[in-house]
Q: What sequence folds into this?
């Protein structure tokens, strides 16, 4: 349904989108993942006909975004970043306005508005002005606006940014629900979000696609090694000396050391029962074990490896 | 047509949902009535010339204030991104917005009819110049609105749009004035005196609505509307 070939967009000397190609089929929920400023928004703006590209082509539902932008715009529902809405309008007036421009026949307008209000949980807000809505409800109204003409394709730019954890989960569930019937492209820089909602992930960095696959495929890439977190009560020097000797440990790092409890992050080869070996190791040395857990290797590692940016990937506490 | 109507409705309502419309109407009526009645009883004639000679200057300050938000605000808060990705043609948005601001002006001008009614009650005015004057107000106001809206497409800052609007309207207003024409090189005088907004207004004020003046005003309105469409399109496909 979406076909992007060699898309390039420059802002002066900066290349925002660099030779990007991908496609997406009906029924997919496609996640754009990348640090801030990676080119996610620019790509979406090109797809929604808000910006033009410098090179390359993009087709949405068979229509070219440059040549037939009018048709493309009919096929897409778009929620721009941070849901810009007219704050001096009433919620219901706003939806009526969008419905009219979206060419929904007059007889069906109130039904469609009721439908999207239900889907997005806006019933209580319908009498209010947009300006009175909280961030979460604005986001929902933006989503309602993008759904009103029942488009086959939805483009959502950071739909969960600025929301509280409960709202994030609600919006995510909504996306998953809607994604059963429609094709959705959404962007985020929050990692758990994509693994929770997407059927496919595109990781973008510096304007280029650095990875493209299902969440499992991408997580699999990082599964070369295993990380175990361990806390041992015992003399520090001795523990560290013995850890050096241990064959299954390929690398370790002291995370914390209190009076007599030391915590380590231990990297080892995959499939060697590291946790079990470490347990025996502690027992044999007559120390005691206060904590032992396997750190989940996830998309975060793939993301960090691919984007080379440790700080951009702080997941929120959800 | 449907789209133009939708944009018109949204913009017109937004004027009345915010204080802009009320402030505009109140201050326009208060100022114009002040300038009119200040001289009216002194002169003791049932004419409205005083009123019509002041209005272009009142418009100069007030109309850019009405148009400054039309595009600048949309760009500033980002709503333009939803607007321009809707299946709607650029010219439809421009025309819808223009008509909304024109109707606000229309409402204001109609409310000022209290002045000619007063004049007619107190004396026996000549209807021609008053009717002509009102047609002239619509035409001149329409031209200012078109210029002001163009100023708003240039920037995302409403203050800049406001000042730019005033400067452009002012420029077009004074190039036909004698003081400019005296100092201008000879070859440019006929061009300036034709382009000047004020001169055409004066000739309509005499109560004679000449097709040349109509063509002039419609050209100015059309030209700046066209520039607005161009500007909006260029900014989108930049």
A:
């Amino acid at each position: 349904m979406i076909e992007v070939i060699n898309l390039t967009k420059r802002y002066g000397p900066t290349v925002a989108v660099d030779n990007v190609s991908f496609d997406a089929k009906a029924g997919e929920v496609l996640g754009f993942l990348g640090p801030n400023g990676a080119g996610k928004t620019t790509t979406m703006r090109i797809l929604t006909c808000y910006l033009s590209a410098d090179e390359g082509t993009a087709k949405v539902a068979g229509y070219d975004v440059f040549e037939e932008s009018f048709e493309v715009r009919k096929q897409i529902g778009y929620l721009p970043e941070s849901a810009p809405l007219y704050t001096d309008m009433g919620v219901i007036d706003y939806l009526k306005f969008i419905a009219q421009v979206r060419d929904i026949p007059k007889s069906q307008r109130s039904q469609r508005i009721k439908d999207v209000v239900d889907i997005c949980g806006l019933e209580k807000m319908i009498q209010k002005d947009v300006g009175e809505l909280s961030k979460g409800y604005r986001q929902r109204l933006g989503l309602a606006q993008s759904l009103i003409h029942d488009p086959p394709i939805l483009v959502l730019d950071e739909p969960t940014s600025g929301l509280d954890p409960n709202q994030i989960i609600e919006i995510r569930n909504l996306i998953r629900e809607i994604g059963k019937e429609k094709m959705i492209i959404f962007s985020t820089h929050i990692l758990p979000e994509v693994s929770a909602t997407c059927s496919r992930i595109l990781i973008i960095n510096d304007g280029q696609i650095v990875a493209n696959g299902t969440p499992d495929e991408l997580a699999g890439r990082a599964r070369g090694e295993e990380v175990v977190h361990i806390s041992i009560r015992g003399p520090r020097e001795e523990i560290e000396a013995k850890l050096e000797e241990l064959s299954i440990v390929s690398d370790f790092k002291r995370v914390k050391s209190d009076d007599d409890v030391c915590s380590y992050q231990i990297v080892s080869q995959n499939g060697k029962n590291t946790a079990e070996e470490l347990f025996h190791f502690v027992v044999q040395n007559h120390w005691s074990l206060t904590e032992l857990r396997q750190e989940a290797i996830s998309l975060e590692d793939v993301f960090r490896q691919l984007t080379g940016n440790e700080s951009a990937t702080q997941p929120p506490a959800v | 047509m449907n789209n133009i109507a939708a944009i018109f409705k949204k913009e017109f309502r937004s004027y009345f949902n915010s204080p802009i419309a009320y402030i505009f109407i109140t201050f326009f009526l208060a100022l114009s009535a002040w300038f009119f009645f200040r001289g009216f009883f002194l002169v003791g004639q049932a004419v409205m010339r005083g009123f019509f000679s002041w209005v272009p200057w009142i418009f100069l300050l007030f109309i850019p204030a009405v148009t400054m938000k039309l595009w600048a605000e949309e760009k500033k808060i980002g709503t333009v991104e939803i607007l321009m990705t809707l299946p709607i043609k650029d010219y439809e948005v421009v025309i819808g917005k223009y008509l909304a601001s024109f109707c606000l002006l229309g409402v204001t001008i109609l409310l000022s009819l209290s002045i000619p009614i007063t004049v007619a009650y107190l004396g026996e005015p000549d209807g021609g110049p008053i009717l002509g004057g009102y047609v002239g107000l619509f035409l001149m106001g329409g031209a200012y609105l078109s210029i002001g809206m163009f100023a708003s497409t240039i920037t995302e800052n409403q203050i800049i749009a406001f000042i730019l609007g005033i400067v452009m309207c002012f420029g077009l207003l004074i190039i036909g004035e004698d003081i400019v024409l005296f100092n201008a090189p000879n070859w440019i005088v006929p061009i300036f005196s034709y382009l000047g907004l004020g001169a055409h207004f004066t000739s309509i004020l005499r109560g004679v609505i000449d097709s040349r003046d109509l063509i002039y005003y419609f050209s100015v309105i059309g030209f700046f509307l066209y520039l607005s469409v161009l500007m909006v399109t260029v900014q989108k496909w930049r």
